[in-house]
Structure formats: C-alpha cells, structure tokens
Amino acid sequence: MVNSEREVSSHLESSCQALAFWLGYQEERSSRHAIREIAIVTELLALLDAKLARKQFKVHCEMPWSDIIPDKHHDCSISMRRTDITIAMDKHIHFALEVKKIEGRFTQTPSAGWVKDLKKLCELKKLRADLAIRLIIVSSQQLPSEWLSQTGRAGRQVFETDSVKYRLRRILKAHPRLPTIDDKNLNLVLKKGPSVVIIEPLGVLGKIL
User: Is the pTM for the entire model greater than 0.70?
Assistant: First the structure.
C-alpha cells in the first residue's frame, strides 16, 4: 500500500500541474465563461487515466461509498454518498479524491464548500483506514497567506480549520502571462493565475488519522 500510495501521489502531482496549465489556457481562451467544476473533474480524470492506465491502475468517477467501504450493511446516508475520483488496482481502491472549485473570495468558514469536503474525506477515512485521501482545490483567488512560505511554496506545517487538521502537499500554479521584473528589488513578479492545491486531510481535532 505504501509503494502504491507513493506512486499514485507522484502521478497525481504531475497531473495537477498539467491541470493548472490547462486552467490557465482555458482562462485566457474564454475569460468571459466560467469553467464548471464538472469540467475540471473530467479533465483531471483524463490526465490521471493517461498516466496511471499503463501502471495497471483504474480511475473511476462518482463512485458510491457503498462500493468503497467493504461492509455489506450500509445505512442510507452511506449508500447515497459518492466520491469525485477514485483510483484502484485489481479492484482494490487505493485513493479517494474530492475536487472543489473556489468561487468568489476564499474563506475558511465551516460553511465553505472545501471545508465540508475536508470533513467528508475524514469521515470516509474513518470507514476505510487504509484509504489514501486528498482534496484538490482549484482557485483563481488569492490563497490564504499562511499557506505560503516566503518563497511562495506550500507551507509544511499542520493547519486547522473548523476542528479539522490537514497538511498541504503541493501548491501548483499556472501563469498565463509572462512574469515581470521588479526593478527596485530585482525580484521576479509572477502574474495572477489559477492555483491547484493538493491537501491531505489528517482528521478531526484530537483524532489524527
């Protein structure tokens, strides 16, 4: 399981980088039309399938929780729930991914959709302890400042929001315009562009997964 998780994680990061470039292209090509979340899920699904199919992994979309959790006696709430993307080998599911596009200002309130997805993934992990889980956030908005190091990379510490702990795995950017040089400080200034953030939920407060 550890080797499979490491291999899938590597391909997930490269697929998310490609997704960031695709988002940058889409924003430049049709800036008047918002990219729907389902289109982002479909593109990421295709990118992952292209990379993982030759490794004998199978990528699925909208898989019901009842197919992920081995227990045959599922209550109604479990049977009705689905996961955006799952990755399996030999019918054993290794990864579960949720994808969330941030519309408008980025917030960290309990009602924010990405926070709800963090909790959803933590709940799924409780039911399948061996499952690797990731939340993929797509946003053209400014990310929380505490997420970024001074070099603009993902912060390595453990974060918390609404009692859920999580770690940033990667922040991947696409810059659809050429960078400029800040003559005063001689620093490279990157233009605003889409971000793809890979988050690993760690569990609710006091119950690290």
Answer: yes
